[in-house]
Specification:
The protein is an all-alpha fold and 274 residues long. It has a domain of 166 residues: Alpha Horseshoe (Serine Threonine Protein Phosphatase 5, Tetratricopeptide repeat). 70% of the residues lie in helices and 0% in strands. The protein contains 14 helices and no strands.
C-alpha cells in the first residue's frame, strides 16, 4: 500500500501536505544526494542480492566496521531492502558511523513512507517508524534545509502512524499535541483516548501524562497509580519530570487513596494498563 492509500483515512490537508513531503524527497533523490552509487562499495559487489548485502552490513556493523556497514546498507537500500533503508536513516539521524545529517535521514525516511506497505506486512514497522521520524522533523524543522517547522502537518503524520499502524509513540505524541493544542485545536477527550491506547501498550510516558490528566480531573487513585507505575518503568532521561509530577500528586492525595493507588500501581506493573 502506498502512502496515497494510507492518507485516504485522513483529511484533505494531510494528503496535500504529505504529497509535498514526498515531492521534496523525490527531488532529493533525483539530485542523487540520497544514496551512494553501487560502484562505491568496498565489500559488496554489484549484482549482490539485497538481502545478502544487508546481512553483510549487519555483520560489519556488529564487528565495528561502520563504514563498511553504511556502504552495504546503501547498496541494499538502493536495491529495495526496506530494513536497510531504515537502518541507514537511523545511522544518519544518530550520527552513528557517519556524520549526523538530519536532512539526509529525512530524505531516506521519506522514501520509506513513499514506498509504503500494508498493515500487518513484514515491513510495517519500518514504515510506521519512518512516519514518526518524519513527523518529528517536520514538527521542529531542520535548520539550513527546505524542511520548515509545521506542527499541523506533524500532527497529521502522527495520526497516520497512530491510526493505520497503531504505533504507540505516535499515539503518545498526538495525544500530547491534542492536549496542548499544538498543531491544531485542543481536544482533551481525544487526547485521553490516544494516550490511553499508548499506555495500554506499556508506553510509560503516556501512562505518566494520562495519569496526571486523570488526577487533575479528580480520578485520584487511578491517576496516582498510573504515575507511580510510570515512574517505576521510566528510563533515567525521563525519571525527573515524572517523579516531580508523581510526588506532587502523592502529596495531595489522602492516605487511603495513596495506599489504594500503590496497590493498583503494582497491578499495572504486573498485568499492564487496562
Amino acid at each position: 500500500m502506498g502512502i496515497g492509500t494510507a492518507t485516504s483515512i485522513g483529511n484533505p490537508r494531510a494528503i496535500s501536505q504529505m504529497r509535498s513531503v514526498l515531492a521534496l524527497a523525490t527531488v532529493a533523490i533525483a539530485m542523487q544526494i540520497c544514496f551512494a552509487q553501487a560502484g562505491d562499495l568496498r565489500g559488496v559487489k554489484a549484482g549482490t542480492d539485497p538481502w545478502a548485502a544487508f546481512r553483510f552490513g549487519f555483520d560489519a556493523y556488529k564487528s565495528g566496521d561502520k563504514q563498511e556497514a553504511v556502504e552495504a546498507y546503501r547498496y541494499a537500500a538502493e536495491n529495495g531492502h526496506a530494513g536497510a533503508r531504515w537502518k541507514l536513516a537511523h545511522m544518519y539521524a544518530d550520527g552513528d558511523g557517519v556524520s549526523r545529517d538530519d536532512y539526509e535521514a529525512f530524505k531516506i525516511f521519506s522514501r520509506i513512507v513513499q514506498l509504503g506497505t500494508d498493515p500487518g506486512s513484514p515491513d510495517e514497522n519500518y514504515v510506521s517508524d519512518a512516519l514518526v521520524a518524519l513527523a518529528g522533523y517536520i514538527r521542529r524543522g531542520i535548520p539550513k534545509s527546505p524542511v520548515k517547522a509545521n506542527p499541523g502537518m506533524a500532527r497529521d503524520l502522527y495520526i497516520q502512524a497512530a491510526s493505520i499502524y497503531g504505533n504507540s509513540e505516535a499515539q503518545f505524541e498526538v495525544g500530547k499535541m491534542m492536549l496542548d493544542g499544538e498543531g491544531g485545536t485542543a481536544n482533551v477527550k481525544q487526547a485521553a483516548r490516544w494516550l490511553g491506547l499508548a499506555a495500554s501498550k506499556g508506553h510509560y510516558q503516556a501512562q505518566a501524562v494520562l495519569g496526571n490528566l486523570l488526577f487533575q480531573k479528580g480520578k485520584v487513585v487511578r491517576g496516582l497509580a498510573m504515575l507511580t507505575a510510570a515512574l517505576e518503568r521510566a528510563n533515567p532521561v525521563d525519571r525527573d519530570w515524572i517523579r516531580s509530577i508523581q510526588e506532587e500528586a502523592f502529596g495531595l492525595a489522602a492516605e487511603n487513596d495513596r495506599r489504594t493507588a500503590i496497590a493498583l500501581a503494582e497491578d499495572i506493573l504486573k498485568n499492564g494498563y487496562r
